[in-house]
Design brief:
about 180 residues, seven-stranded mixed beta sheet, 5 helices, Aminopeptidase, 7 strands, about 35% strand, single chain, alpha+beta
């Protein structure tokens, strides 16, 4: 089975003042700090009991396994402040597709960061990794995330009834995709 091409050390983020790097265990406190905020996870499927719940997500990411999840930290370039994460938590190399996911600290909401980073990562996935499909699922109440995907050119493909259990309740999702 082919390996995914290595992510470049810097995906093009223009003069945004942001940079991406593989997430690592030192990011756990900063990441958990905002994922523990109820208003941050309200429209997501995050269900964390402690910061330790992030450890397996990080350790399974960015390995040499072709289907290993990819998770990148989004940082302010000048201060190295942790802004959020972006990546592909689900990859199927045999099917040449991946599922996009991102999250941001609320101080950075509404600034175009999710769109900017998603555009760069999806461009890499389609041109370098040769994926034929990048998809994303969002809770039907997550209108901000749906707008990000639409702005990037993702098409809504489905309304998925009771698609995932979120904090004990079956919830409806929207499925978006971009194909090459």
């Amino acid at each position: 089975m082919m390996r995914l091409p290595t992510l470049p050390s810097r995906l093009p983020l223009g003069d945004s003042g942001l940079t991406l790097r593989p997430i690592d265990l030192t990011d756990i406190p900063s990441w958990y700090r905002y994922l523990a905020m109820p208003h941050v996870i309200e429209h997501t499927s995050w269900n964390l009991n402690s910061a330790d719940d992030l450890r397996p997500i990080i350790t399974s990411s960015n390995t040499d396994d072709v289907n290993s999840p990819i998770r990148l930290a989004i940082l302010e370039k000048s201060t190295q402040t942790f802004v959020g994460t972006i990546g592909f938590p689900i990859i199927s190399r045999i099917n040449r597709n991946a599922e996009l996911a991102y999250d941001l600290h609320p101080d950075y909401w509404g600034k175009g960061i999710a769109s900017l980073c998603s555009r760069a990562l999806v461009q890499w996935a389609i041109t370098e990794a040769e994926f034929v499909r990048v998809q994303a699922t969002v809770l039907d109440t997550n209108l901000a995330s749906a707008r990000v995907l639409q702005k990037l050119g993702f098409q809504q493909e489905a309304y998925l009834k009771k698609y995932r259990i979120v904090r004990g309740e079956p919830r409806d999702y929207l499925m978006f995709a971009m194909t090459n």
